Amino acid sequence: MSGSAGGKLLVTVLFILIGLPPGLCSTYGMAVAVTTWSNSHTSESTGYALMFGVPSLIGLAIFALMLWWLIMTWRNRSS
Fold it and tell me: What is the pTM of this model?
């Protein structure tokens, strides 16, 4: 899946614009979810944990997919 210089540039720009923001936001969202849930185990705190946790997991999946694509594009296949 190694690409040309233009392909590498495109994947890098897409990673920065599409992959990096969900990765950074998911880190914050997971911290909020874990902190909220660990402070008290009421139904309200579980709701807040789900409200922040599920979108954070989706963002983490987007980040991981884009990171995998970036690594596969930049990997040198000749060695």
Answer: 0.77
Its domain, for residue 47, covers: 5-74
Note the pLDDT of residue 79: 46
Residue 79 lies inside a defined structural domain of this protein: no
For the cut 90, the answer to whether the pLDDT of residue 14 exceeds it is: yes
- Domain-located, residue 16: yes
**Which own/partner pairs from 55-59 qualify as long-range (CB within 8 Å, at least 24 positions apart)?**
55/26, 55/29, 56/25, 56/26, 56/27, 56/28, 56/29, 56/30, 57/26, 57/30, 58/22, 58/26, 59/22, 59/23, 59/25, 59/26, 59/29
